[in-house]
Design a protein that fits this description.
- Two copies of one chain form a homodimer.
- Chain A has 373 residues and is of the alpha+beta class.
- Chain A has two domains: 263 residues, Glutamine synthetase/guanido kinase, catalytic domain (Creatine Kinase, Chain A, domain 2); 90 residues.
- Chain A contains 13 helices and twelve strands.
- In chain A, the strands form three sheets. The first copy, chain A, has an eight-stranded antiparallel sheet with strand order 2-5-6-7-1-10-12-11, covered by helices on one side. In chain A, strands 3-4 form a two-stranded antiparallel ribbon. In chain A, strands 8-9 form a two-stranded antiparallel ribbon.
- In chain A, a hairpin with a 5-residue loop joins strand 6 and strand 7.
- Chain A is globular.
- Chain A starts with 26 loop residues before the first strand and ends with a helix.
- At the A-B interface, helix 9 of A face helix 9 of B.
């Protein structure tokens, strides 16, 4: 297989997370995405391989032709899922640029026993803030990512992309329902807004279930690091709106901002409680986690993520002061199996990964601890 | 209760373990003890409180009167078990100067419902190498402790004590069987010789069961840190002869020395195997254990002992080079609940102990790491 080059794989961290100012300790990132479909074609699960190819061709053509879109995605061709290596594909999932589902969705080719990811491809911009998946659950899924709690710029950018695409493509749209999508939960605005939020305080004070239940009751979904169907790890939760019908786009954005601010406030209160009532227990937990990350010679991605989450809490609570937020974010991405292998530019066995991961984490922690505070 | 002063409690470590030269990384200590009984009295379990008092009186008198014995134990009175605090008693057990059984053995006083540790007392010398229990399982149990594998001096000293006691007391002795004791396993020489040995290599290579079974088959018992009925902890094993009849004293000592040397040799081979075949796993384990001891803010004695045992292996395998053997031994004693409280001269709740223990361990490790190697 001729390897497709991914020009941004040589960066240890997505550009948008590189600045300490841009990101926050509690809200890691905000994300907005639109689901859109082309009129006159079946949804991807019902489409034939030939139809998927046609859809891909139409959208790619639009991206190349339209000036603003072409500025977003200067690479002339999208990344075809069946043209990249499994490692590259996993890398894109770990960076939250494509969905896990996008990788594993297979179609049977008409009049043939062969099946594959026909017609599936993605445009990704250079700074990894914008990506556009073709033929995922819908014909078009495009998203804008931002560090911290920040929907203003990203939602403006998302609308701009939407306008450009709409100027060249005919969307499936109903006067009564709005944009039509494969899953009813996306019908209407097709907008999903979500945040990745770190809630260790609520977990450790055992208030998390109560708080998340309340969030869920007012119409928000809670998921793990990689979205639907994934487990929560390292105290990270993804919160998103569940309904996109019956609310305006602005109302959806305002709603998630409000809920996120409430969560931040609950989390801060929980941390204050820990500071006052469980000081030595929390310090013990934080210093141990830091010590293990600083000393392990073999470490799995799961253990590293859990320890890192505790250290992140320690930094937020000022128990640890010599680690930058950038270092925490860098470790958070580099500990992932595909990111680690892409960083070292070699395929590794699980044992080799555990060894290299431990060494790399120690190196980043040593570098960050030598920086002036 | 008027507190009996224990003059040696202000030492963090028994004198005999204070020198790096005297002790060894694999064999922590050697111990020899004689079991003896006075003719004309029932064994302690069958004796009345009055008889136990008489036995105590006779033995104490002999110790005070005999010049050499008096030199060993210059304190005129033995430490009466019912005259010291529970904390002091626990301290003596942790230092291996009295047996756990000695503390908990209770006698009912004749014509009374009251029961207690009547007539039970111990002489302990200043450097904690020699102790003499009165009315434990036998009327007399006296022992000599030494650092490392070293029976020569201690066995000479034990015999000297025995000769002195015999010059003033009439032992229960049979021409056919030798010295008579409460438990048949001690009949004959009444000699038990044991070593406390550290076998992490054999545990980690999973060879320990095979090796210990072989030891057991040729007549040696394997026990935990505090003797009979105690669990093995932190890879420490106590090996001792099981039979004292039908072998001369010299044969018993030679036997345990030989078995110990074989164990040392097996352990060294296991460590070589680990070095060659599981290098990163062992380094990971050692560095993590060291990091946790260096960073915990709350630690139980059990966790601390297990981590310390792994660090001890790391020092033996030269993975860690900036910790002295004395520091390892010091931590090993100070982590124990009673030793810790005696060191700080205050009674503490379990939570306070966990906090103080963690702080003290960090302090000792910091001090040792600043010493020139």
């Amino acid at each position: 297989m001729k390897e497709t080059k991914l020009s941004f794989t040589n960066r240890t961290l997505p550009i948008w997370l590189e600045s300490d100012k841009a990101s926050s300790l509690t809200v890691l990132s905000s994300r907005v995405r639109f689901a859109r479909n082309l009129a006159g074609y079946p949804f991807p699960t019902k489409a034939t391989a030939n139809e998927l190819d046609e859809i891909l061709e139409m959208i790619s053509h639009a991206v190349k032709k339209e000036e603003t879109l072409n500025k977003f995605f200067p690479d002339s061709e999208p990344i075809a899922i069946d043209k990249i290596t499994p490692l590259q594909a996993e890398f894109l999932v770990e960076r939250h640029l494509i969905s896990p589902d996008f990788l594993h969705r297979m179609t049977k080719k008409k009049d043939s026993k062969s099946s594959g990811s026909f017609g599936r491809a993605a445009f990704i911009n250079q700074d990894e803030t914008v990506s556009l998946m073709i033929n995922e659950e819908d014909h078009l899924r495009f998203q804008v990512l931002a560090a911290g709690l920040n929907f203003t710029d990203s939602f403006r950018k998302l609308n701009e992309l939407d306008d450009c695409l709409e100027s060249l493509l005919r969307y499936a749209y109903s006067q009564q329902y709005g944009f039509l999508t494969a899953c009813p939960s996306n019908v209407g605005t097709g907008l999903r807004a979500s945040v990745m939020i770190h809630l260790p305080g609520l977990v450790l004070t055992k208030e998390i279930d109560k708080v998340l239940r309340a969030i869920w009751q007012i119409g928000y979904a809670v998921r793990g690091l990689y979205g639907e169907g994934t487990e929560t790890r390292g105290y990270f939760f993804q919160i998103s709106n569940t309904v996109s019908l019956g609310q305006s786009e602005a109302e959806i954005i305002e709603g998630i901002e409000k809920v996120t601010n409430q969560l931040i406030s609950h989390e801060e209160k929980a941390r204050e409680y820990l500071s006052k009532n469980m000081k030595s227990e929390i310090e013990d937990k934080v210093f141990r986690a830091h010590a293990l990350l600083n000393s392990a010679r073999l470490i799995t991605s799961e253990e590293a993520l859990n320890l890192l989450a505790t250290v992140r809490l320690g930094v937020a609570m000022k128990i640890i002061t010599n680690i930058t937020l950038t270092a925490l974010n860098k470790i958070m991405f580099l500990l992932k199996p595909a990111n680690l292998q892409v960083f070292y530019n070699q395929e590794m066995s699980p044992h080799e990964r555990d060894e290299k991961r431990a060494a790399l984490i120690r190196q980043i922690l040593t570098e960050t601890s030598q920086l002036p505070i």
